[in-house]
Amino acid sequence: MAATTGARFDGSELNRRAAVDEYTAADPATEARVAMYERDRAKRESARASVETLAWIVAAMAVLYYFDVVNTLRTDPRVLWNWLMLGVVAFSVFGAIGAYFGIYLAYVVKKTDDMAESSAIPVAVVFLLIGATAMTIAVWPVWGFVTPVIGFVEFMGFVMITSFLP
Fold first, then answer.
1. Could you tell me the sign of the dihedral formed by the alpha carbons of 120, 121, 122, 124, in that order?
2. Which of 41, 51, 138, 153 could be a cystine partner for 84, CB 3.0 to 4.6 Å?
3. Over the chain (166 residues), what is each successive 10-residue block's mean pLDDT?
4. Could you give the CA distance from residue 72 to residue 81 in angstroms, rounded to a whole number?
5. Alpha-carbon span 39 to 148, nearest angstrom
């Protein structure tokens, strides 16, 4: 029951698509099914993203608990304090730049175009890399080769938690 307005089934993909498009355009029920399928697919993708977000947050909490990160950073004598403080300062600057974009520009100035302030993004990336490197060096004597894994899981947990902010 293909439409007869010009598209033919001669085996080419282009003609097949044209015939299907003409058929579905003439059938409102098919359009409704396609729209329903698109809504269902969006719900499935949203549910998958929610499960992934929750998994990263739970993993970050488990790493914090299992490796006793907070107590280790405060009391372990093997932690290199100068590197730790450099990491804290670098992450603080990174957080301040993020707050500038996420809070000040979005809610105070009500500016939606971030391209005017895009020179701050490379600066934020540099501070993120400095902070991650300094933190890794600071706790390497404590956890060794597991340190980058711990840092990555904690970073992903932080990113997923911030995704819940308005």
1. positive
2. 138
3. 50 58 61 68 69 91 94 93 96 90 79 68 93 96 95 92 77
4. 12
5. 39
Question: Any idea where the domains of the chain sit in the sequence?
Answer: 30-162
Note whether 29 and 44 are within 8 A (CB): no
Q: Is the pTM of this model over 0.70?
A: no
Structural element, H or E, at residue 134: helix 120-143
Q: Which two tokens stand for residue 138?
A: 């600071």
pLDDT at 11: 55
The residue assigned the tokens 């302030």 is 117
Q: How many residues does the chain have?
A: 166
Is the separation of the CB atoms in 91 and 131 below 8 Å?
yes
End-to-end Cα distance, the chain: 50
| H or E element that contains 25 | helix 13-25
